[in-house]
Write a structure and sequence with these properties.
This protein has a nine-stranded antiparallel sheet with strand order 26-29-28-27-30-25-24-23-31, with helices on one face. The protein has an eight-stranded parallel sheet with strand order 15-14-13-12-11-20-17-16. The protein is globular, with a radius of gyration of 29 Å. The chain has 831 residues and is an alpha+beta fold. It is built from 14 helices and 53 strands.
Length: 831
């Protein structure tokens, strides 16, 4: 082992060198003597050449305009330290050259202002994700170790005041006897707090001992509360916000909205009691237009438990106004029109697919023009959301992170800082301590925003709208974006004003005859020292946070465990029922330190077994077996199950389950039975780990049987056999969903299960023909060892015409190395 360690640096160097045989990769050869090449003003600009590259060569340093700002021979024939002087804030590239040598690419670095103590309330924020994304990665030959401290230092140098990190509850409390083993999570938050940076924490991996079913969410309300309470109490002073779960309306839970709502309530009470100063957030909703899941969660009265609505967006800039209108409309609908809004993930797909091969095999990275799109996007997005009244906007993401052909990080895989990092740091330095006043009147095509600085002077940020502002993400071609200039004037007293470009490079601007002449292009510019300007569209004035309703007791949390009489619909937003009545177990939990006495009531139907007066001791949970009978008229399909209570003279929040009788609804619809599914030859193998899947017709079950076995060590297990449709006989034209029966072999517990529509891929120029394009994955409730009917609705999940469907897949993601399941009676349901 010791021998391996002594050889490791040489092995890594050899691996890195071998990636570019016959040429020298300048981005790897040049080593800035500042973390990630992010120098602070007045910090010496020193560079060395990495061992193995130290030979005589010339260097050339250029600014973002391509102007050479320094050049010459590398000191001591390549073995010395290059020290640059006189370079202002900005973003720069270094090129190398030498006779007989082939140098490719360039090294990058930048100069940022020395950070001030972050201003409380600053809206500009970063999703750093460093506790996960900056873990050690031996495959990353250029940065194999942990990068967490590097990310923390880069956050500090940017001047940011709030970052978002991810924890792992399962690793912190793997057993009931192990509590609060925080690993590096709290340590990272404490290191940030030294610089005045607060952390917003999200987690979504509850340990198995907190669950009584196969689930993602915990089911134990008290265990959930206790973890939230202890975590919040143990991190006072460093964790400033808590998010319970992440994107629960999309793919991070199998559980329905009412279960999420109950668990959010328990966690929120724990956070609040553990640290009353922290901001409590829901797990971010990420799908707009809103899914029925979101509405169902809000029908469970979750808003009184949180301080701000937490959402995510990757929309193009042109849709920001529309998106914000939808957010405000939702809050108004639920009685909180002025509730603060946090965006804990915000980024863009406008660079399109990463198109430059990475030094890491199988990965692609953004080209310089794609990186420039991100640098342009960062301040525009942050300012536009600030103008819309968003309280905090976390750009995704600071740490290096690849997801398919998206290369999200403001830091590259080798942890060098991209131009977007420097544009963010400039935004924070120029406007992080300013108050937003509103948008100025400006010529068509120019956006200009007015700010008040602490000294009473005014500042502006402005730019000319480019394709990034005006087009859909898929319509943008990064290589073709041009900074087309447009001049305009602003009233200003005669004199000289200071300003800077996107990367902080200073400039002086002279006003004459009461007019300041400015040039706008796609890159935002900042100007300071102004006065007397009045916005044409003033900033929103938000009323003070409403006081809690004294008539509502938030500490009583209600949830229910439904029997097999109820069928969860695939949107996780409603239930179907096998008959008019269904058995359930109602849980009522007192998450306070005061004994509570009260009664329960039901709406949407009737129940048998409801108790009379209930007494709940502090932190006590009681369970009651009930039978619910719905009150939905014979020819209607929609209703509800809703429980409320009144304890110690105060009402509880609602526990609300929407009912949608899909089994009744589809009886009135046209259906097409796909008998072809029983022919094993029509199904093509499609599973993790290679061709380890078989299909056969099982006469005993009258069903298609699918079996898969995964090679040992397979981490991402999935099996989704694929059948090509016989058109037009099996067409999905006008289809609204499918129904089928499914069952699993005993002792098999999958993590997820999906029905997939595979359509003809529509590949745009410059994009990779990647697996998954033209696919729509529609989740259905996880099956078990009994035959069960699954009705899959397309209405929210399929964003294309089902008529374009060419293939279908039905499968699941098992937890074990072997799985067997059966499907039968597959029917297409038509509008």
């Amino acid at each position: 082992m010791q021998l391996f360690r002594s050889l490791l640096p040489g092995l890594l160097l050899a691996a890195a060198l071998s990636l570019s045989a016959g040429s020298v990769d300048v981005s790897w050869a040049v080593v800035p003597q500042a973390p990630s090449g992010a120098f602070l003003e007045q910090e010496p600009l020193r560079f060395t050449l990495r061992e193995g590259f130290q030979k005589a060569c010339r260097f050339q340093v250029s600014d973002v305009y391509g102007k050479t700002v320094s050049e010459g021979e590398w000191p001591d024939g390549g073995k010395g330290t290059l020290t640059l002087s006189g370079l202002p804030r900005g973003y720069y590239t270094i090129h190398l050259s030498a006779p007989g040598s082939d140098y490719e690419d360039c090294a990058t670095f930048g100069v940022v202002s020395r950070p001030r103590r972050p201003t409380p309330g600053m809206p500009y924020a970063l999703d750093s994700a460093h506790s996960w994304c900056a873990e050690a990665n031996p495959k990353n030959v250029r940065f194999p170790g942990r990068g967490m401290d590097r990310v923390i230092e880069l956050a500090h140098r940017s001047g940011v005041g709030f970052v978002r990190d991810r924890w792992g509850w399962g690793s912190i409390e793997p057993k009931p006897t192990i509590r609060g083993r925080y690993w590096h999570f709290v340590e990272n938050a404490q290191k940030l707090a030294v610089h005045g940076i607060k952390t917003s924490v999200v987690y979504h991996d509850a340990p198995q001992w907190t669950k009584d079913t196969v689930s993602d969410l915990p089911t134990d309300l008290v265990a959930n509360y206790n973890f939230a309470f202890k975590s919040a109490a143990d991190t006072r002073g460093c964790v400033g916000a808590w998010e319970f779960w992440n994107e629960e309306d999309a793919g991070f839970t199998n559980e329905p909205a009412w279960e999420y709502a109950a668990q959010l309530k328990a966690a929120a009470l724990g956070y609040r009691n553990g640290n009353p100063d922290a901001t409590v957030l829901n797990g971010a909703f990420c799908v707009v237009p809103w899914r029925k899941f979101t509405y169902a969660a809000l029908e469970n009265d979750i808003l009184p438990y949180i301080d701000a609505l937490n959402v995510h967006t990757y929309n193009p800039l042109k849709k920001y106004d529309e998106w914000n209108a939808e957010v405000r409309k939702l809050l108004e609908q639920y009685g909180r029109p002025d509730m603060p809004v946090w965006i804990t993930e915000s980024s863009t797909n406008s660079p399109r697919d990463a198109r430059k091969k990475s030094y890491m095999p199988g990965l692609f990275t953004y080209s310089p023009s794609q990186e420039a799109v991100i640098a342009e996007f960062v301040p525009k997005a942050q300012i536009l959301m600030q103008a819309a009244g968003i309280e905090k906007d976390f750009f995704f993401v600071l740490s290096p992170y690849n997801e398919g052909y998206s290369d999200w990080g403001l830091l590259r895989k080798d942890y060098s800082a991209r131009p977007g990092y420097f544009s963010f740091a400039t935004l924070v330095h120029e406007l992080g301590d300013a108050k937003y006043l509103g948008e100025l009147a400006a010529p068509e095509g120019i956006r200009a925003f007015l700010f008040l600085k602490p000294d009473g002077s005014q500042s502006i940020a402005f730019w000319r709208q480019s394709e990034l502002d005006l087009l859909e993400n898929a319509e943008i071609e990064p290589d073709n974006l041009k900074p087309i200039p447009q001049t305009w004037t602003l009233p200003a007293e005669t004199g000289v004003y200071s300003g800077c470009n996107l990367y902080g490079t200073p400039m002086k601007l002279a006003a004459e005859n009461g007019q300041l002449r400015l040039t706008a292009d796609r890159w935002p510019v900042y100007v300071h020292g102004l006065s007397g300007l009045t916005p044409a569209a003033p900033a929103r004035v938000r009323p003070a946070k409403p006081a809690p309703d004294p008539e509502t007791d938030l500490s009583i949390v209600i949830r229910a465990k439904l029997s097999g009489d109820f069928i969860q619909n695939n949107g996780r937003d409603s239930v179907d029922m096998k008959g008019a009545s269904g058995a359930l177990t109602l849980e009522v939990c007192n998450l306070s330190h005061e004994t509570k006495r009260g009664t329960l009531s039901v709406a949407g139907g009737t129940v048998t077994g409801m108790p009379g007066t209930i007494e709940l001791k502090p932190m006590q949970k009681l369970s009651f077996p009930l039978v619910f009978t719905h009150a939905i008229p014979e020819k209607e399909f929609n209703g509800k199950i809703e429980f409320t209570g009144r304890f110690n003279g105060r009402k509880t929040t609602r526990f609300h389950i929407p009912i949608r009788l899909l089994s009744r609804e589809i009886l009135s619809m046209k259906r097409n039975v796909l008998d072809g599914i029983y022919n094993p030859k029509r199904w093509h193998s499609n599973c993790a780990g290679g061709n380890h899947m078989t299909t056969r017709y099982d006469e005993k079950e009258g069903a298609l049987c699918i079996e898969a076995e995964f090679p040992p060590g397979t981490n991402d297990r999935w099996v989704y056999p694929e059948m090509e449709l016989s058109l037009p006989r099996e067409s999905f034209k006008n289809a609204v969903g499918v129904s089928f029966e499914i069952k699993l072999e005993a002792d098999t517990a999958p993590k997820e299960s999906y029905f997939m529509l595979v359509m003809e891929p529509k590949i745009k120029a410059g994009d990779h023909n990647r697996h998954g394009q033209g696919e729509f994955h529609v989740r259905y409730p996880i099956p078990d060892q009994n035959w069960q009917t699954r009705v899959v609705q397309f209405e929210e999940s399929v964003k294309a015409d089902p008529a374009d469907t060419r293939k279908i897949r039905i499968g699941l993601n098992p937890k074990s190395d072997r799985v067997r399941y059966w499907i039968r009676n597959l029917q297409i349901i038509y509008r």
